[in-house]
Structure formats: C-alpha cells, structure tokens
Amino acid sequence: MYPHSPKLDPNLCRTRQAALLNLLSEQKLGAALLTNRNYIHALTGYWHEQSLTEVAVLVSREGAIILFAPGQNLGAPAIENHISYEPQELCTLVENIPGRLADAIRPSIQSFDRIGVSGELLPGLVDAADWIDITSEYQLLRRCKEADEIEMLRFAIRATEATYEEARRILKPGLRELTLFGAMHAAAVEALGEPLSGWGNDFRSGEPGGFPRTRAAEAGEIAILDIGVGYRGYRSDLCRSFAVDGQPTEAQQKAHTRLTDMHTRLELYLRPGLSCKTLFEEFHAQLEGWNAYSFFHHLGHGIGLDAHEYPHINPHWDDTLQAGDVVAVEPGLYGEELKAGIRLEQNYLITESGCERLSQYPLDL
Asked: Rounded CA gap, 344 and 336, in Å?
C-alpha cells in the first residue's frame, strides 16, 4: 500500500461482526458463511488479493469466527482463528479450488443445521446443512457505512477522478475506445498503488453506455464515461460526459446545463428520512421529455462493497435515505441530437443534517 492508503479499523471490523451476530440471532441461524472477498475484508480487515483462489469466513451465533484462506501468518487484524487449505501443488492450481475450500470448511459446520449464506454457496457444501440466503438482509445490515469504510470509498473516488484527468488529456477524434479504456485503467492503478478489485462500467462514445470497442471516437459525439474503481472491495461509481472534440454543440451544452442544475437541487434534497421513490419521481418528471430527450434509468443507488447497494433511488423499491448511506446519483438526458446523451454522476454521503459530496472532479463537458 502507498503510505497514504487507508486501512480498515480493526475495532470497526469487530463492530460489523457484532451486527452480523445480531442478524444471526434474529434469523435463528446457527452460523453464516461468507465467500465474497469484499465482504470478508469489511468484516475481518483481511484483504485476499489473489483473485485466482477462494476465501471464506464462518461466523457462528456464539461469536466464533474462522477465516478459511491459503497460507500462514496472514496478519488478519480483526480475527484470531484461521484454517489454511492448499489450492495448488508445486505452484500449479488444482482443478477444483472450491472443492478444496469446501473440504476445509466441512468439519467446522457439522454442528449447525441452519446456516445463512451471502455470496456463492460452494457446491461441495450444498448437502451439508439447510442453507438460508441472507444476501438482502446482509446488504441492508451494512448499508450505513462506518468511518473507516467512508475513507476507503473516498480513496476509490480519488482514483476514479484520476481516470477522468487522463481521459480529458487524451480524448480526441480517432481515439479508440479500447485505448481510452486501457489508459484510464492504468491511471486508476497508479492512483491506488495496487491492482484494482473492481473496474467498469461504460467507455463508449456516441452511445449511452457499454464496454469499450475497437471503434474510434468521432467529432461531435459525447463520450459517456461511467467508471467504478474498486479499492480492496470498496467501489466508487462516477460518471462524466466529455465532448470528444472539446467543442460541445449548443444542444449538448443546454442539456449539460440542465443536468448540472439538477445536481445543485439534489444537494439540497438529500437528507435522512427522504423517500427515494419520491426523489426519483420528482426528478424524473423534470428530465423525461425535456426538449424531447429521454431519461430511461434509475436516478441512483447505494455504493460500497457491491456496484449497486441499498438504498435504491428507483420506483421499483420504496427505500428511505439514512445517515451513513453513501449514494451515487446519476441523472441523464439522451437523444439522437445529443450523440447520444449526457450523464453526470456524483457520490454523496448522507449525514445527520443533509449530505456531503464526496466527488470533486469538475462536471465540465
């Protein structure tokens, strides 16, 4: 890690462990098994950087917590019990790594009839217990972020902003989307000082979104760059829209002004107790059909260890903002005249009195 890279606070990891224990008691579960390395990092402080191998944590309702991961002396700051398994032979990875991990876990779960699971259930354990999916409950449990988690997200956001600085530097007509993708990825890695734990999402010009192509950007188009940078499981989600040739048309500039005005208003709205469905409906009404343009997606969502978390600023849910939520808010306008649209996304921390904007990179076209 760089000297300035944030770390999780072991005491706050234990606070998150205690919250999970309460959930197990409420759900009348003997234990929970987590297999997502992002969740495991948040809970234990141990970051499993090798994505080719598997890791798991077993949490019993009595408070015993066991980390299952390859190696010895892992230095996990908020966990004492570790069981190692071997995913390779003479540095060759075995064919069924999840099976090896399941074999290591099985003796520790024999006394539990009902076990909660969040993340993929290892195939080798399907018949070992009555497995209860707690994915939604666990995401709700961790929606409000602790202070150390907010610092992790701030760091991921700073790295995302470094990708926009690089995009603005090199974007021009004729630049391939894949070349832009690679340069932005390199900027994020350099900003974090280590490989990314997550990366995406939209890198196209002249379209509302999508993975990069060999296609070159053209003058007059807008490049919609919606970027999520993962830092040890914690993931930002920002969007900026740039005129490929640096000369936005009058229509593009007007749409851009409309969206920046929306963000100014949004910062006055965001506060604990606000209905996310109401928020969506109010701003959707101001954007859908404006100048005959469309706004066809959600207004935003929570961020943290998953790309989309609670709360959902979306009429298909009826969530309410809470202090401690970190949300990505992304109004957009799309239409053929805009080639193909503009989306601007900011990340906000919901505070007791309103909100704090965590993202600082300019919204300019």
From this structure: 18
Return the closest-CA partner of residue 10 out of 68, 65, 51: 65
Tell me whether domains 10-141 and 147-357 share a fold.
no
CA–CA separation, 340 vs 209, rounded Å? 9
- Which CATH fold topology does 147-357 show? Creatine Amidinohydrolase (3.90.230)
What's the pTM?
Answer: 0.96
Domain residue spans in the chain?
10-141, 147-357
- pLDDT tens across the length of the chain (365 residues): 555 799 999 999 999 999 999 999 999 999 999 999 999 999 999 999 999 999 999 999 999 999 999 999 898 899 989 999 999 999 999 999 999 999 999 999 999 999 999 978 999 999 999 999 999 999 999 999 999 999 999 999 999 999 999 999 999 999 999 999 999 999 999 999 999 999 999 999 999 999 999 999 999 999 999 999 999 999 999 999 999 999 999 999 999 999 999 999 999 999 999 999 999 999 999 999 999 999 999 999 999 999 999 999 999 999 999 999 999 999 999 999 999 999 999 999 999 999 999 999 999 99
CA distance 325 to 121: 28
CATH number assigned to the domain covering 10-141: 3.40.350.10
14 token code pair: 């234990």
